[in-house]
C-alpha cells in the first residue's frame, strides 16, 4: 500500500497502525537480536509505552521472547534483550529440484527443525506437486505434534515465475512451460491434509537469496545478490530490503547474460550465456568433450581435487568467467554483498580462487568500496531454507 | 521514513499526513494528466472531501491547475480534469559536461523555459562550480523576473557520486577524485546571488534516467534503465519508482561491465569494458587506429552517414556490442523500458539497427515479455532536464 493510502486509513484504523508498527519492531529485532524495548523505541521513533504494549503482544503471539539479561554490577534494572522466539512459530520451505524434492521446517531464526528429501525424476507438474505435498504434509504433521504453529509454506522452483507467484514461465530442466502453479499446489496440499496456510511460489535463486538475506545477514545489508551455480546458473537479487523481481518476474537471470558474443550455444536459444561457461554442464563438457551426460558434481569435484589436469583447467576456466560475471553484477547493481552458492562451489579453491583473482583484476578504480563476497551459508538447503525465509520476509514486510 | 515511523507520527501529526497525501496526489496526476478529483479519490483511497481540500491547496500553491473540462452533451456537471500546473513553479537543472556547461529551466511538465550553454575546458572543481553558478544565477534571475517560483536546483556530473550526493568519487574526464561537491556548490551559488534553494548533485546518467522517468513516461513504467553513450558509457537505473544508487552510489556503471575477457584496455584500469566497444572513443579508435584525438561525434556521424566503409564497419561493430549490453541489462534487471541516449545515437540506423538485431538474436526464450526499447526524448539536454526532474521527483517522493 503506498504511503498515501496509509495516511488516511491510519487516522481511523488502529489495527492497521498496530500491524505496521509490529512488523517494524520485528524487522528491527531480526536485524539485530538483543535490542531492548528502549532501543526499539529509539530506532522506530515510537514511544516507549507503545513499544512495550506491542512487544508484549508479540511475545504473547510467539514472535518474540526475552533472552537472558546481561549480568552487570551497575545499579538499577538492566534492559532486557529481545530476540525472535525460536521455539513456537515454524516456517515450511520446499524446493522442487531437477532430480530431488526437499522440504525443510525452520524456526524464526532459520534453525532447521526438520527436513526430508526424496529423489524424483522430472515429471509433469501435477504429479510433482502431489509428491511434494506428501512431503510437506509429513513435516507439517510432525511440527503440529510437537506443538509448533506453522506460519506459512513457500516453494522454490528451478525456472521463471511471474511477479505474482501464480504461474511458471519456463522451467527448462523439468519441461514445464507457462503453467499455473499456485492453485494446483494449494489443491494438492489440501488433498494431502495440510491445513490452510498462506502458500507462495518463487524462483529457486530468489528463494536462496532470501535464505541469506532473512537468516544470514547483519543489520547493514539491505542489498544482496545470490549466485546459484549448478546444472544451470541463476541469480536472486535483494535491493532495498525487497526481492527485485523485475517487470515480469524474470530479473536476476544472470546465467543468461552474455559473456561472449557468438559464444557457445546455450539451452535458452541464445549464445555465449554465462551458463555456457560457469555451470556444471559447461565444466563437464570441457572435460568429456560431450554435452551428455553431465558428470555429477561429486565426480567433478573429485577429479578437480585429485589434480586431474583437464578437470583443473576446466574448473579454472569456469572460475575466470565467474569472476567476469561477478564484476558485471557489481558494476551494474553495486550490492553490499555477493553470495556464491549452488553445487558448483564444491569445486573448491581451484574454481573459486580463479574467480576471485579474475574479479579482483577487473575491479575499476572509481568504486568507493568493494562488494563483500562470501559463500552460501545453507549449502544444499539454501533454496528450501530461503523459501521458509520468504514466509517470514512476507510477514515482516507487511 | 519507514512505514512504522509514519504510523505513530501520523496519528498526531496532521501536517505530515497532509504532506504525504499531497505528494501522492501529485504523483497520480504526474502519471496521468487529466484525472478528476473523483478519479484521485478512487485511486488514492482517500475520501472525496479530503481530495478536494488537498487539490485546492495544491492549486493555490501552484502545483496543480484545472484544464478545460471536456465538452459533453450529457446532463450534469462534468468532472474537471487536473494537470500539473505548467505556469508557476520552475525547476533548475544543470549538467557539468566534459567540455561544456549546460543549465536549463523547466516547468513541472518538463517543458523548457530557458537554457544556456557555455563551452569550457576541464578545470579544477572550484573554478568549474563558480562558472556553473554564474550560469545558474542568470537563469534564476530570468525566471524570477518573469514571476516564476524556483523549487530547487540539481546538477549532473560525469562521474560517480556518493549516495548522499555530497562527494564525487572519480570523474575521470575532469580529473576530479574524491572531493566534496555539495557544500562548495552551495557556496558558489550563494556568491553568485542565487537565493537559497535545495541543491542536489547526481551522476549524469542517473539524471538522464530521471528525465525519461519523470517527464517522459506513462503510468505503467516504474522501472527504466537509461544508457548514456558518448565519450564513455554510463547507465541510470530507476526501480520501483526510485533511482537505484547501490550500496555506495556506483550502481548503473554498465559502461564498465565486461563484454570480453582479456579485451581492450579501458581507462578505468580494467579490460574489455563495454566502454571499450560502444563509446565514441571506441568507434574513433576503430576508424583512425589511434586513441587520440577522439573524433567529434558530428564527424563520426557524417562519415557513417556518408557510407565511409571503415566508419560503417566500426559503427556496426559498436552496435553489436550495444545489443549484447542491452541483453545483459535486461536479463539482470528486467526493466519495463530501456532508453538509448547520449551523443552516440547520432550514428543513426547503422549503429542502432545493428544493436537491435543483435539484441533480438540474443533474446532468451523464457521471458514473459520483451523490454520496450526506445530513444531518449531530450537529446543533448537529457542530463540537465533530468537534473531538473530530480527536483520534482524529490518533492513527489516525500
From TrEMBL, chains A, B:
PROSITE patterns listed in its UniProt record: HTH_CROC1, ROK
InterPro entries, per database record: ATPase_NBD, Cro/C1-type_HTH, ROK, ROK_cs, WH-like_DNA-bd_sf, WH_DNA-bd_sf
Highest taxon of the lineage: Bacteria
CDD domains, per the entry: HTH_XRE (cd00093)
A Pfam family: ROK
HTH cro/C1-type domain mapped to chain residues: 26-52
Family recorded in the similarity comment: Belongs to the ROK (NagC/XylR) family.
PANTHER family xref list: BIFUNCTIONAL UDP-N-ACETYLGLUCOSAMINE 2-EPIMERASE_N-ACETYLMANNOSAMINE KINASE, ROK (REPRESSOR, ORF, KINASE) FAMILY
Protein name, as recorded: ROK family transcriptional regulator
Species name: Archangium minus
